[in-house]
Design brief:
Its main location: cytoplasm. Helices cover 58% and strands 3% of the residues. It is mainly α. The protein has two domains: 104 residues, Orthogonal Bundle (DNA polymerase, domain 1); 178 residues, hpI Integrase, Chain A, CATH 1.10.443. Strand 1 and strand 2 form a beta hairpin.
């Protein structure tokens, strides 16, 4: 289902600046359409708030005249709407980026937003599956489909996510040309950055089995993973399959397709992999993002200690 275009309730001069900003995000920052749409929704929510707050659509002059109290009023309104701290922090990050763009491109300068602190999002720890649960997920993925080729597709996709640590969007963006044929493949991730990912033989075999059974021809420019009608596979279909597996395997709600990527990193770390290598394999821009997995492994070790050590059981 195609989403409706985002409407920016803004005066013509501000709407033109927004169009320039979106073009800059795409061309200069190489942001994906998904990212640009997310930023756009955040900005559109702010403009909608300003209509009631200012008594009409904002223009560039109105934006440059906003005070810290105006931005705090926006946060208060979003909190009243039930928005989470993480979402409010993301929206403020979008606004800061937009106002910085306006300043850098001579649309106007307003330092007021720098005086406003967004709510600090709660620190999240990646939710990884146990090694046994991850392997059971790969086996179960093929059992939920009646059509053999769809069963092979799901098994190949889940094996790829866990075996190579890919994001779901990265896997579904692969074409026939990207189909792994050697011990490594190049993946294009966030910001169109490319990274080299090792490919296990069982991952290649799973994908070969799927392609061999697929009733649709997969050319070099065709999507590698397709739906029942031969079009690119919708991520919602994959997420639905994972939801079906949770009760069958006794998995928590945190067991999503993305959890297989977290499991990939956590199990590498537990097996002795170093953080720098895992950072490269995951395509993280900063090491601090990858370091979240050290906390996951520390929690695993603590649980094992409490369950097994005699002094932990009988203080």
């Amino acid at each position: 289902m195609t989403k409706a275009p985002i409407h920016f309730a803004a005066a013509p001069d501000l709407a033109k600046a927004v169009e320039h900003w979106q073009g800059w995000l795409s061309g200069e920052k190489r942001a994906s359409k998904h990212t640009i749409d997310g930023y756009g929704r955040d900005l559109a929510a702010f403009f909608t708030f300003l209509i009631g707050h200012l008594g009409g659509e904002a223009d560039l002059a109105a934006l440059m005249a906003l005070s810290p109290a105006d931005f705090r009023a926006f946060l208060a309104a979003r909190q009243h709407d039930g928005l989470s701290r993480s979402s409010m922090a993301r929206q403020m990050s979008t606004l800061r980026g937009f106002f910085q763009f306006l300043d850098n491109h001579d649309y106007g300068h307003n330092p007021a937003i720098g005086a406003v602190k967004a709510p600090r999002p709660p620190k999240s720890v990646p939710k990884a599956l146990s090694a046994d649960a991850a392997l059971e997920t790969l086996d179960q993925a093929a059992l939920l489909q009646d059509e053999p080729w769809l069963a092979a597709r799901d098994a190949a996709l889940f094996t790829l996510l866990y075996g190579c640590g890919l994001r779901l969007g990265e896997a579904l963006a692969m074409t026939g040309r990207d189909r792994p044929k050697a011990d490594a493949m190049v993946i294009t991730g966030k910001g169109r950055k490319q990274r080299l990912v090792p490919v296990l033989p069982l991952v290649r075999q799973a994908i070969d089995d799927y392609v061999g059974q697929c009733p649709f021809a997969i050319g070099a420019d065709d999507p590698l993973f397709v739906g029942a009608r031969g079009k690119v596979l919708n991520p919602g279909v994959v997420q639905r399959q994972m939801r079906k597996m949770r009760p069958l395997l006794g998995l928590p709600d945190s067991a999503t397709p993305h959890a297989l990527r977290h499991s990939f990193a956590t199990h590498l770390l537990a097996g002795g992999g170093d953080l720098r290598t895992i950072q490269e394999l995951l395509g993280h821009a900063t090491l601090s993002t990858t370091q979240r997995y050290t906390k996951v492994d520390a929690e695993r070790l603590t649980r094992a200690y409490r369950d097994a050590h005699p002094r932990a059981r009988n203080p």
